[in-house]
TrEMBL record:
The keyword Transmembrane helix does not apply. Catalyzes the phosphorylation of pyrimidine nucleoside monophosphates at the expense of ATP. Plays an important role in de novo pyrimidine nucleotide biosynthesis. Has preference for UMP and dUMP as phosphate acceptors, but can also use CMP, dCMP and AMP. Signal peptide: none annotated. Its EC number is 2.7.4.14. It is found in: Cytoplasm; Nucleus. It comes from Rhizoclosmatium globosum. Monomer. This is Uridylate kinase. Its cofactor is Mg(2+). GO terms for molecular function: AMP kinase activity; ATP binding; UMP kinase activity.
Length: 229
């Protein structure tokens, strides 16, 4: 796929990023095994990506209802862990989230794997993950390969408006203008390379439509990959 087609996948604003990225693709960092117990062989995972406020959570709820998936939000799991009494990661996670940065992948992967094991199901939507190339590589090595990557594309102006509205009632430490802008920068710098890495497995949905219209497109994708028997 040419750099121009790849940039088109993400929007015209990504052309400059990809013009440089095509010449230098750092190898994902390798780490030791995490020692995770295997999941059932028929386990299916779909990575769900999109900027902060793109509406991933709402769409995932619809997919759960219609296709029998379990929705796991990497962000929610991290927020729960930082509030868990006695957590060895709580303070670290809290500080990193406040800065809009990425939590070490070993922590996130262990939390996701534990949630999948506890659930006992075989079809999972993993929302907001991976947020870096090495996270995706490590998850697929340690847990299970992703069937495809669902990418919700949304203009930053629209995401900012949604997040500021949510911040009026959410009580989340990262729903403020400073944290939101930091999260946008992190998303651009980390998630675009992830989508490039998975380019042959990416299914893109525009979020400029209504919630219902976005789900109509999403539903077609899942009917293609998971046809009813």
């Amino acid at each position: 796929m040419s750099v121009w087609k790849r940039a088109g996948l993400l929007g015209a604003g990504a052309v400059g990023l990809y013009a440089g990225y095509q010449f230098y693709k750092p190898a994902p960092k390798k780490t030791g095994t995490l020692g995770l117990t295997p999941l059932p062989k028929d386990t299916s995972v779909v990575f769900v990506l999109g900027g902060p406020g793109a509406g991933k959570g709402t769409q995932c709820q619809n997919i759960v209802r219609d296709f029998g998936f379990t929705h796991l939000s990497a962000g929610d799991l991290l927020r729960e862990e930082r509030q868990r009494k006695g957590s060895p990661y709580g303070e670290l996670i809290n500080n990193i989230i406040k800065e809009g940065q990425i939590v070490p992948m070993e922590i996130t992967i262990k939390l996701l794997h534990a949630a999948m094991k506890q659930n006992g199901g075989t079809k999972f939507l993993i929302d907001g993950f991976p947020r870096a190339c090495d996270q995706g590589v490590k998850f697929e090595e340690e847990v299970v390969p992703a069937k495809f990557v669902l990418y919700y594309e949304c203009p930053e102006e629209e995401m900012l408006k949604r997040l500021m509205k949510r911040g009026e009632t959410s009580g989340r430490v990262d729903d403020n203008i400073e944290s939101i802008r930091k999260r946008f920068v992190v998303f651009r710098d980390t998630s675009y390379p992830v989508i490039e890495m998975y380019n042959n497995k990416v299914e893109k949905v525009s979020c400029t439509n209504t919630v219902e219209g976005v789900y109509d497109e999403t539903k077609k994708i899942f009917e293609k990959h998971f046809p009813k028997k």
